[in-house]
Amino acid sequence: MQHFDIKWRVMGRIKRYAQLGLTVLLSAFLLVGCSTEPLAETPATSQFSNLPRLNGTAIVQLAVNDSNITVKVEGEKAPVTAGNFVDLVQRGVYDGVSFHRVVREPEPFVVQGGDPQSKAIDGPDPRLGTGNFVDPSTGAPRYIPLEITPEGDEQPLYGKTFPSAGIEGSPELSHARGAIAMARSQAPNSASSQFYFALADLSFLDGQYAVFGYVTEGMDVVDGIQQGDRIQSATVISGIENLELPN
What sign does the CA torsion over 78, 163, 204, 100 have? Predict the structure, then answer.
């Protein structure tokens, strides 16, 4: 049985949290009871060649609280991460899932959802935030590599955070307000289906978590999401032709 817990490293803001007497334990998610190990720390291309890719951009629309959130998914800088998300949207994985973690205090932080278990679980529950997408073709969770493109580079860095790779620059896709990125455990390559929206500029997360798109319309809807609110539907409204599925 696997059990992972991640502490968001708040870096520049940690002093403020400490001053408020709060412990910074803003978990990306807990991964419990999985039968398959996440990808190796430094995956070779062959280890994720069987994953979907987005060769370009796509537009995804999420209906929440009878309003729409429009997201531009950036496959040019995060092809595997973006491809995974668009594929899960197409599969209906996000229809009916809830936002199980909303952090706005002491400062706006993230709104997180995407746990498939939440379709069948109402209200606060310790299982929420522990689930992954289970690929019906394998019967096992599907993990994707940490994928971040350094600014000015043509190819993403895989399997490593910028600090662990000794990279001091910024990523092509930053944690600006409205960014959508993959949640993961401490293992770099443990992301699956859970994602979060950045409620503010969160540059201290750059180079550590994989941003793969941005809200272009409906950020006011994101700002209004409460814990337990559900995605009524998720739809790819353009760019599906850019999705490349493995053979």
Answer: positive
